[in-house]
Specification:
By secondary structure, the protein is of the alpha/beta class. Helix content is about 30%, strand content about 15%. It has 14 helices and 16 strands. The strands form four sheets. Strands 10-11-12-13-9-14 form a six-stranded antiparallel sheet. Strands 6-2-1-7-16 form a five-stranded parallel sheet, with helices on one face. Helix 2 runs parallel beside helix 11, helix 2 packs parallel to helix 13 and helix 3 packs across helix 4.
Length: about 475
């Protein structure tokens, strides 16, 4: 009995690990180092090619609840995130190199996981005693994508995501920026140690660096973005951006104040030098634990590299910015999950072939990880002859399945949201109270599921420590 998993992202690594921990042999097939996608720079597994943030960790956020559920279920990705965590206020962000190295080491050293480096151009042969999980992510190779399209037909869709740039910390003018998390969520650390060096341990939770704009500076910046030269899609590419990850130029073109109400919104921030809220801000978030690099939060872009250098140097404090990674556009491939997959995430048209991660139509690192975990648990239950018991629909893990099974006129990728989880019985609750009640119900139902459902929980290793914001329910 063996499962073949194809890919090297969060969904694949989580699925492979969960299967192996349940006594099932796994062959993990990944094309690196033989080939890389345009967005990849490393041969490690679980390379985070977009943001280094896994978003909010508080339980009143749906994604925060999902992370807490994954932690309780023994997620490898959450364990690695705990090891590689960097300051990010109320969010969970990681040092991407340390994160990838941690996952790679755990996978490569597992006695039941065999790594094979090969380029997969067609869906591998599957059988009842050798199922296949495809989790090749947003950059599924052209040949394999064509083979999947052959199976699912016209329901195979594609759209394009954008990657935010990263800048060197040494190139920031620290006299023009200030450190502060929105609404004061964070400590008072200045981010330096006794020797005056930047130090993550001294930063506290004031992890964001804010570049403040005056009104005239903001509108000049927006005009420059709108007028900038962009990398245009090729004539045969049908560009369909995910609304939650729009390039800044797309947002700017919708109206000159759109960015001020989006990634550049100044709410919850006070510039300590003026004592007032800036007209707009660009927020920077640490990329690594040593804080040698920062990414521009929400600044996904398809501007040309030369234009990125020119325009991002218009940001106060970044006049001499050294761009370590330019923003770019990458493809995301996904299937019409409600029509193409069954309740176990199995292709209806091809038995024993399962899909997980972004290729199913979930969006985001945490959601991809969750898809891999849920798929692996249900598959392990089936292979071990146990009853297949999915996570309760009242949980965020169950909400992942709800999204994938909910038929709409036109299925679109989505992050986990509270809309994926049934509301609480008491309709009179205010929004914050409603979310809190849903989170408490979810964790109670999850714990009951983990205690009773066959093979639901990994029992051979310690549970990941809780993330502080999630544990506190802040």
């Amino acid at each position: 009995m063996k499962v073949v998993v194809v890919g090297a992202g969060l969904a694949v690594c989580e699925a492979a690990f969960q299967l192996a921990e349940r006594g099932i042999d796994v062959e993990l097939v990944e094309q690196k180092p033989k080939a890389r996608t345009p967005a990849q720079n490393s041969d490690k597994l679980c390379e985070l090619v977009c943001s280094n943030s896994m978003r909010g960790a508080a339980l009143f956020n749906a994604v925060g609840l999902l992370k807490e559920e994954l932690r309780r279920a023994g997620s490898l990705v959450m364990e690695a995130a705990h090891v590689a965590r960097v300051p990010a206020g109320g969010a969970l962000a990681v040092d991407r190199d340390l994160f990838a190295a941690t996952v790679t080491d755990r996978i490569a050293s597992h006695p039941r996981i065999h790594l094979r480096h090969d380029i997969v151009e067609r869906i591998p042969d599957a059988a009842p005693d050798q199922p296949v999980i495809l989790a090749t992510g947003p950059l599924t190779g052209d040949a394999l994508a064509a083979d999947i399209a052959r199976v699912v037909g016209s329901s195979h869709l594609a759209y394009y995501d954008a990657i935010a740039p990263i800048i060197s910390a040494d190139s920031i003018d620290w006299n023009k920026v200030f450190k502060q998390s929105r609404w004061g969520k964070g400590g008072e650390g200045e981010g330096t140690n006794a020797n005056g060096e930047r130090d993550a341990s001294a930063l506290g939770d004031e992890a964001y660096v804010n570049c403040p704009f005056e009104k005239d500076e903001y509108f000049a910046f927006v005009r420059a973005i709108v007028e900038a030269q962009k990398v245009e899609p090729r004539s045969f590419e049908d560009v369909r951006y995910f609304e939650g990850c729009l390039p800044i130029e797309v947002m700017a073109a919708r109206g000159e104040r759109t960015l001020a109400f989006g990634p550049m919104k100044p709410v919850g921030l006070t510039d300590p030098r003026t004592g007032r809220r800036p007209y707009a801000v660009v927020q920077l978030r640490p990329e690594d634990q040593a804080m040698t690099a920062y990414n521009l939060v929400g600044f996904q872009t398809r501007m040309t590299y030369g234009e990125q250098t020119r325009i991002f140097r218009m940001i106060p404090g970044l006049e001499e910015a050294e761009i370590l990674r330019f923003g770019s556009v990458h493809r995301n491939t996904f299937v019409d999950a409600p029509r193409m997959l069954d309740a176990r995430m199995q292709l209806k048209a091809m038995p024993n072939v399962f899909l997980a991660g972004q290729i199913t139509g979930v969006e985001g690192y945490v959601e991809s990880c969750a898809g891999g975990l849920v798929c692996a648990i249900m598959l392990a239950q089936s292979l071990r002859g146990e009853s297949v018991t999915p996570p309760p629909e009242t949980t965020a893990l169950g909400g992942i399945r709800t999204h994938l099974m909910r038929e709409t006129e036109r299925f679109q990728p989505s992050n986990i949201t509270w809309a994926c989880i049934p509301p609480p019985p008491d309709a009179r609750l205010r929004k914050r109270e409603r979310y809190q009640a849903m989170a408490e119900r979810a964790l109670a139902d999850l714990d009951a599921w983990l205690a009773s459902a066959p093979l639901a929980r990994v029992t051979t290793r310690a549970i990941v420590p809780p993330f502080e914001p999630a544990a506190a329910g802040a």
